[in-house]
Design brief:
By secondary structure, this protein is of the alpha/beta class. Helix 5 (about 140-160) packs parallel to helix 6, helix 7 packs parallel to helix 8 and helix 8 packs parallel to helix 9. The model is unreliable at about 1-30 (pLDDT under 50). Keywords: Glycosidase, Hydrolase, Signal.
Length: about 650
């Protein structure tokens, strides 16, 4: 072989090797295993050191890279040293971000830059305007966004560490740079126009400075499909661009895994863009689940995940790796390297309500108090457990109210009536009688109704995402407790007569704005469905007389992605008008929403109320719950001595005639 041929073959070999290496590199980045580790400079400044599996001190970025992480996200604040800024030491400013970016690129990893456009945290609860931009609005504020974004990216590009992906804003589903860019559920077109003008200013700076970098829009709507689509559709309308959809997903705020799967698949099918879950709180239970859900997105549009500030979980206080966490990533890496591997992910749950009609129910939450005063209940002269008496008279459901801490100052009962332990005792009697059980969360230490929705004393200091997280964890824990006791509720009310909101003042509905309330209600719904997706979820209002405001309420919560199964209404003639008006309203509601309906509180017109619900269109009337059946003043099925009266006779007749 002559020298010329040898040189040609050598060149071809090198070209092949180069192409092969490039393909291998691209293959590695098909799915991002990432993390936001913006806290690293702070913990290192406090003396934290990190060690690899061989107990050798190393750069934490390098340790992650050697454990199959290939993407790192960093947040950046405009001036964290400002008076109300994030850090007097300047953490998360341009200088610190540049230093971290160099470590990321040195480790051969991708780098995502997350612009918060604030001097401190920007998220759905807050998007504070940077102090140096105070007084700017309109075009001047857009110019501030553009110039700042361009300056930061130019510095990073000049230093050879340009980000591979750029977020224009952090969790901006409620807008950014408030008040000008604020966006809530009562947003006008002018509000949308202002926000999108700010976003496009950042977009323009990214496109001009780093035309090869990907542009991400980041929303905190992991399991909220309707809201995600609303936002992305508005972006298209206003000419706002994005290459990647970024979503936060935290179980306490963003729905169930089923909600996440349903949303991601739909967004991929609708918009055809790559999707990243760019924030999730990593734990040993959810890492594989969330990564597999993203990996399973249709058409390989699942781009990857980024665990949010996971180093406290991944490393012990001594800086040594927690083997169990890195073993999960090793498993993920090995599986995803296999071209034939397909994650086993449950399909989105299609919830079906299987409730036998008619519901003939009673709220008897007062019973333990009455029994403590010496009341005994009899039917036809025979003393029995009141639950058994109701069952003997064709009642098949019992409703029990639950207060958070009735023994607190200002609470309902120093003896703990209607608290968790007392409600469990009553639920045991209900289940022992073979009856079904509706649990009514009041989310208060005392009565919650249209005129009052007092915050539980122990929750008084909570607001924003902290309160949303609390309603989720409280609801979740309570439902689990009932199930663990063998007392699974077949139905749950998330709030009591809540057409004016709940957990006031945070969750009070003011005018057309119900944003905070809907966030709380979404959390309560997700908490129930996470424990048991087959439990029916009721939303209960007291607007049987008011069709206009019933529609306004349900349209609002449905538009804000609140998931529920059953419409509950209270009906008392003294507040809610005559039977004919109530009936016509319920018919309209059944025809509009196609959801089952229950009159979950009533006292007068016992026979007529049950007949009206029975005859609602398309069989959507499930039944009724008479309120405080044992009280002569309210339900009036028993006299003052605890004996059944003539009103009790209505129910066996209604039940026997129901199917005729």
């Amino acid at each position: 072989m002559n020298l010329k041929k040898l040189r040609i073959l050598s060149l071809l070999f090198l070209m092949t090797l180069s192409v092969s290496s490039f393909a291998s590199k691209n293959e590695e980045k098909k799915f991002r295993i990432g993390a936001d580790i913006s806290f690293v400079p702070q913990v290192e400044a406090q003396g934290m050191k990190f060690y690899d599996e061989n107990n050798v001190e190393r750069d934490v970025v390098e340790i992650l890279a050697n454990n199959h992480f290939n993407s790192i996200r960093l947040r950046i604040f405009v001036d964290p040293r400002a008076e109300k800024g994030y850090s007097k030491e300047g953490f998360c400013d341009l200088e610190n971000t540049l230093a971290m970016a160099k470590r990321i690129k040195k480790a051969g990893m991708e780098f995502t830059l997350d612009f918060h456009y604030s001097d401190t945290w920007a998220d759905p609860d807050k998007q504070f305007k940077p102090s140096s931009w105070e007084g700017a609005s309109g075009k001047a504020l857009e110019d501030s966004v553009y110039n700042y974004t361009k300056r930061v990216l130019t510095v990073l590009k000049k230093e050879g560490v340009a980000p591979d992906m750029v977020q224009v804003g952090n969790e901006i589903n409620h807008g950014m740079i408030w008040p000008e860019g604020k966006l809530m559920d009562d947003a006008t077109e002018d509000d949308w126009k202002t926000l999108m003008g700010l976003y496009v200013a950042g977009q323009k700076a990214v496109r001009e400075t780093l035309p090869d970098s990907k542009l991400m829009v980041h929303l905190a709507l992991g399991g909220q499909n309707g809201l995600s689509r609303d936002f992305l559709d508005k972006m298209k309308l206003y000419g706002a661009e994005y290459d990647v959809v970024g979503l936060s997903y935290y179980e306490k705020w963003h729905g169930t895994y089923s909600d996440l799967k349903e949303n991601l698949d739909d967004l991929a099918n609708t918009y055809g863009k790559p999707i990243v879950v760019c924030e999730y709180g990593a734990n040993q239970e959810n890492i594989k689940i969330i990564n597999d859900i993203v990996r399973s997105i249709p058409d390989n549009l699942g781009m990857g995940t980024m665990a949010w500030e996971p180093l406290r979980a991944y490393f012990g206080k001594d800086g040594k790796p927690v083997k169990e966490f890195f073993a999960i990533y090793e498993q993920i890496h090995q599986q995803y390297e296999d071209p034939n591997f397909s994650p086993k992910v449950d399909l989105p749950i299609e919830r079906t309500l299987a409730i036998e009609k008619p519901i003939i129910g009673a709220d008897i939450s007062f019973v333990p108090q009455m029994e403590a005063r010496g009341t005994k209940y009899t039917d036809k002269g025979v003393e029995k457990d009141v639950v058994e008496i109701l069952k003997d008279n064709s009642f098949n459901w019992i409703r029990l109210r639950l207060f958070v801490d009735p023994t607190s100052e200002g609470g309902y009962s120093k003896e703990g009536y209607c608290g968790l332990e007392e409600t469990i005792k009553m639920a045991k009697r209900v289940k022992a009688a073979g009856m079904k059980f509706l649990l009514d969360f009041h989310y208060s230490d005392t009565w919650a109704d249209p005129g009052k929705q007092f915050m539980p004393v122990s929750w008084a200091e909570l607001k924003g995402s902290a309160l949303e997280g609390k309603i989720y964890s409280y609801t979740n824990e309570v439902v689990r407790r009932f199930i663990d006791e063998g007392l699974r509720p077949e139905m749950i009310q998330i709030g009591n007569e809540i057409h004016n909101g709940m957990l006031w003042p945070v969750g009070k509905i003011e005018g057309d704005s119900a944003e905070s309330f809907c966030l709380l209600l979404r959390g309560a719904s997700a908490a129930v469905r996470e424990v048991d997706p087959d439990i029916g979820i009721m939303v209960h209002i007291a607007k049987a007389h008011d069709l206009k405001n019933s529609i306004k309420f349900f349209d609002k919560i449905i538009s804000r992605d609140v998931k529920f199964d059953i419409i509950g209404q209270s009906y008392y003639p003294e507040w809610h008008g005559n039977l004919e008006n109530m009936e016509s309203n319920m018919i309209e509601i059944a025809n509009r929403y196609h959801k089952p309906i229950i009159i979950v509180e009533y006292k007068e017109h016992k026979k007529e109320v049950n007949e009206i619900v029975k005859n609602l269109p398309n069989g959507l009337g499930l039944g009724t719950f008479i309120w405080e059946a044992t009280s002569p003043r309210w339900g009036d099925l028993f006299d003052r001595n605890g004996a059944t009266n003539k009103n009790m006779k209505i129910y066996p007749v209604f039940y026997n005639d129901y199917s005729k």
